[in-house]
Specification:
Blueprint: H1 2-13, H2 15-18, H3 26-32, H4 34-42, E1 50-54, H5 62-68, E2 74-79, H6 82-94, H7 96-100, E3 105-109, E4 121-126, H8 135-148, E5 149-160, H9 163-170, H10 173-193, E6 194-200, E7 207-213
Parallel strand pairs: 1-2, 1-4, 2-3, 4-5
Antiparallel strand pairs: 5-7, 6-7
Helix pairs in contact: 9-10
This protein binds S-adenosylmethionine (SAM).
Length: 223
């Protein structure tokens, strides 16, 4: 309940970056962490995986990720909002499942655009509300995703079903133009890199999870 209240407060105060009125459901969490579980099963001799969660918020996905991590995996989280980051820190201190993996986890308080990592990741799980952002920001975020992922690594993010197409019909001209530009940036990536789309009806609102594989070499940004 505390998490739902804090989420709603942040939604009202920081609409653009929070992008939702409530945390994601456990069904969405299960769908978005699917590639992590799959990569762990496939990893030869239990080779360690590097996992990055972007925009964890109050930890709707994190609480599943911390249960899935093996001792050899490394987990980084990048969160722009200090209030959310404070809540996440409390969970790492007080929740036994989170505390179990606190030594192998690191929370970074910064925008993804400013984040740098010593090594690339096998799995990126993103809760960023891309449909709220400017085309320039979305292009730079995808550049970051590809830069931070190993070739063959997986990127999973969610968006509310049909939201862009519905808004494109109803919104004012400048907003329609922005959404059209987002389509132009995102659709080529979906076309060339997507290996799966999960439909999650048990979420408010229902959502798609887009699962993409990193290109073998860097992909130039659009826009
Ligand atoms: C839609 S909420 C998702 C929260 C959580 N993953 C969930 O699904 O319930 C978006 C989250 O992304 C964070 N965020 C927004 N822009 C960000 C950025 N540029 N870098 C890092 N985090 C960001 C917000 O503060 C918020 O925690």
């Amino acid at each position: 309940m505390v998490h739902h209240r804090e989420f709603f407060r942040q939604f009202r105060q920081q609409f653009e970056t929070t992008g939702a009125i409530a945390p994601s459901s456990r069904f969405l969490a299960k769908a978005i962490t699917g590639p992590l579980v799959q990569k762990q099963r496939q990893s030869e001799n239990g080779a360690p995986l590097r996992v990055l969660e972007v925009g964890p918020g109050t930890g709707a996905f994190t609480k599943l990720i911390v249960r899935q991590l093996r001792p050899q995996d490394q987990f980084d989280l990048v969160e722009i909002n200090d209030d959310f980051a404070n809540l996440l820190e409390l969970s790492f201190e007080n929740d036994p499942h989170w505390n179990n993996v606190s030594e192998q986890s690191e929370l970074h308080r910064c925008p993804l655009q400013d984040f740098d990592a010593a090594e690339p990741y096998d799995v990126i799980i993103s809760g960023l509300p891309l449909n709220n952002f400017s085309p320039e920001l979305v292009a730079s975020i995808f550049d970051q995703f590809w830069r931070l992922l190993k070739p063959g690594g997986s990127l999973s993010y969610f968006e509310y079903m049909y939201i862009r197409s519905a808004k494109k019909k109803l919104a004012a001209k400048s907003e329609r133009e922005r959404l059209h530009q987002l389509d132009e940036i995102i659709k080529p990536f979906l076309k060339s890199q997507r290996f799966k789309r999960s439909w999650v009806f048990l979420n408010v609102p229902p959502a798609w999870v887009q699962h993409l594989t990193a290109p073998a070499t860097a992909t130039p940004s659009h826009g």
